[in-house]
Write a structure and sequence with these properties.
Layout lengths: L1 H19 L7 E13 L10 E11 L4 E12 L10 E12 L9 E20 L6 E22 L4 E13 L7 E15 L1
Antiparallel strand pairs: 1-2, 1-8, 2-3, 3-4, 4-5, 5-6, 6-7, 7-8
Length: 196
């Protein structure tokens, strides 16, 4: 799985380099604080409840449509089991590429985002006690690469600021835990600042 993720990332990066050679350079910075809910999917939804997340992205714009940068996000979701010693908690550091088609006459500006993230996660796993069929819940830390994919809408307030909503799909595979394949959506609201 990690090889596939790395291949996709390299392929995407090479195509962006090709794209940049045909565009007019316009330099600016984008700062994007956001926060909202985290919603578990698939097998993960059997073990954890909906939680919250917040984060910050900083990107450099290379033209009117493409920006590249990084971000940090915090995700927290409580386990459904009452004896879980800690919530599912992940700090995500990512490298992200955003494509926002240039629509100067449109009142809402959509965009798409692709990111490769390092998920630094604390999760609960079931450890056998030695008695057949008995387990005890314990916490474990694991770091793994994952994929973040989604998009959002910006509503311009003025030339520098826009109100924002964003939906992202997050997927990471961890060693152990209650379901190794962690998938969740984040639904966020925030502000996008464009600084030249």
């Amino acid at each position: 799985m990690k090889k596939v993720i790395i291949f996709i990332y390299i392929f995407f990066a090479l195509n962006l380099c090709n794209l940049f050679s045909q565009r007019v350079a316009v330099e600016y910075w984008i700062i994007h604080p956001r926060g909202g809910i985290a919603y578990p999917l698939g097998d993960m939804a059997n073990y954890v409840n909906m939680g919250y997340n917040y984060g910050l992205s900083v990107r450099k714009g290379f033209d009117a449509e493409i920006s590249i940068g990084g971000g940090i996000s915090m995700v927290n979701m409580m386990y459904k089991a009452n004896d879980a010693p800690a919530p599912f908690n992940s700090t995500v550091l990512d490298v992200e590429v955003v494509y926002a088609p240039y629509l100067p006459d449109f009142f809402i500006w959509p965009y798409g985002k692709l990111a490769l993230g390092m998920f630094m996660t604390t999760f609960v796993f079931a450890e056998p006690t030695g008695t057949p069929g008995e387990y005890v819940a314990k916490t474990k830390n694991d770091n793994a690469f994952g994929v973040i994919l989604g998009g959002g809408l910006n509503y311009p307030i003025n030339n520098s600021f826009a109100a924002n909503i964003e939906i992202l799909y997050n997927q990471v595979s961890l060693q152990g835990g209650l379901g190794d394949n962690y998938q969740f959506f984040t639904f966020n609201a925030g502000i996008v600042a464009s600084l030249k």
